[in-house]
Amino acid sequence: xxxxxxxxxxxxxxxxxxxxxxxxxxxxxxxxxxxxxxxxxxxxxxxxxxxxxxxxxxxxxxxxxxxxxxxxxxxxxxxxxxxxxxxxxxxxxxxxxxxxxxxxxxxxxxxxxxxxxxxxxxxxxxxxxxxxxxxxxxxxxxxxxxxxxxxxxxxxxxxxxxxxxxxxxxxxxxxxxxxxxxxxxxxxxxxxxxxxxxxxxxxxxxxxxxxxxxxxxxxxxxxxxxxxxxxxxxxxxxxxxxxxxxxxxxxxxxxxxxxxxxxxxxxxxxxxxxxxxxxxxxxxxxxxxxxxxxxxxxxxxxxxxxxxxxxxxxxxxxxxxxxxxxxxxxxxxxxxxxxxxxxxxxxxxxxxxxxxxxxxxxxxxxxxxxxxxxxxxxxxxxxxxxxxxxxxxxxxxxxxxxxxxxxxxxxxxxxxxxxxxxxx
Length: 424
Ligand code: PLP
Fold this sequence. Notes:
By secondary structure, this protein is of the alpha/beta class. It contains 14 helices and 13 strands. The strands form three sheets. The chain has an eight-stranded mixed beta sheet, sandwiched between helices. Strands 10-11-13 form a three-stranded antiparallel beta sheet, covered by helices on one side. A two-stranded parallel ribbon has the order 1-12. InterPro entries: AspAT_Ic, PyrdxlP-dep_Trfase, PyrdxlP-dep_Trfase_major, PyrdxlP-dep_Trfase_small.
């Protein structure tokens, strides 16, 4: 049934039917959680062989004793791993500690306070530097901006990436736009892969934007495919080279969802000018990253082939969980006007848009029925989803049976929230 076409009587009948279904769920005393975008214990165990892999040999290929201080930009073997992961030349890579979010924070802080290309380029030199945030997006990107006092301007995500007409219009209209967040592959949370045209338009932004404008290209899900023959993301590195905009994009990735989420290795890829600015900042923070961990990662994942075959093992664990989410959504909502979603073939999330004004009520109903969902609004800057529509579902941690159970509840909650709102 289409809610928009239902009569008041039909809505009332539906409401009582759904309330009965919901009350039956309440009686089950469920405790399920689909909030966490992190690997399951089974996924983490895929990398347990890293433990002890060095077997007492701590020397890198060039003789560096990885146990000691130094090597601010990482050992050569780890740069190779970064290159295999990000498909960028090793010369353009810096290897950090365990978290790409840290590198993104440090890079944005450098851009803001010190300038990536010298003091003149510091964003703080203007009153209100602004960063473009495609929405829905990754909440921790927003936290970085909020902490640094950088104003966020939103643009909608589409099925092919950020609405580039909106992005270009903002940049053309406002000289104080200094940056943009992007999760180009299996975007958090929509699961969208940016189209070739979108990537090329992003690579060309450096031609129209202020010279200190930087895209923060967070490729957190670069190799996190769920299917064979996955979509290919165009190379922003090659496209910025083609368009002479090398300084306008900094890329980030990590092994957090490849090996150990709390003990992986993170990478930044950028032009030599940008890397010089970042390394100057890093050099004031640390005498060097954890090179022992870098070496054991390089031993564990010695080639692109090894990396991709390791990722297939993750896919085997994740795919049935995504199937459970997507088939529940299809069964409940195909052909209805109750919600919309993308069908991701990689990454960690499924993003569901309810009818306007129904996301918070859905999350609340689900919580009361024992199913924890990410708070509505979390995928928008300042936690404010102006249309109150978006809900992020993260199925990696629960068992398949738990995902199925959570989706049964989710579906009823979406329907009930929608019908109650239509009646109100
Ligand atoms: N970027 C995105 C888009 C993410 O979804 C996440 C984690 O969920 C991260 C970065 C965190 O990466 P890291 O563990 O390397 O800090």
